[in-house]
Amino acid sequence: MSNTDKTPTPPYYAVIFTSVRTDGDNGYEKMAEKMVELASRQKGFLGIESARDKETGITVSYWDSLEAIKAWKEHTAHKAAQEKGQTDWYKHYKVRICRVERAYSFDQ
């Protein structure tokens, strides 16, 4: 999944979420789609990229400020998803918040 069309010229912020999943879906895919849709409506949201194999996932969301990231972390529906993640969906996860200073790309 990729939605980075709105990513501006740096600087901006990236939240890197790496995870190792538990076995089975247990409602994960439906909730993940709901969270992307909800996050995309939040003030300061710039885009998202995600990749997953059978066990490991990496999702990077882009934001215009640390305040926007904090507001998303504290959003009621997102908090419920975080709790479900700890009880049902993840064996392990790690969150890193970074300031993007430079960005470049290649398109063929």
UniProtKB/TrEMBL annotation:
What GO MF annotations does this protein's record show? Answer: monooxygenase activity
Q: Domain named ABM: which ranges?
A: 12-97
Gene3D superfamilies (alphabetical): 3.30.70.100
**One short Pfam family name for this protein?**
ABM
Q: Which UniProt keywords apply?
A: Monooxygenase, Oxidoreductase
Report the protein name in the record: Antibiotic biosynthesis monooxygenase
Q: Does the keyword Oxidoreductase apply?
A: yes
* Record keyword Aminoacyl-tRNA synthetase present: no
User: What range does the record give for the signal peptide?
Assistant: none
User: Per its UniProt record, what InterPro entries does this chain match?
Assistant: ABM_dom, Dimeric_a/b-barrel, Jasmonate_Hydroxylase-like
Which species expresses this protein natively? Neobacillus citreus
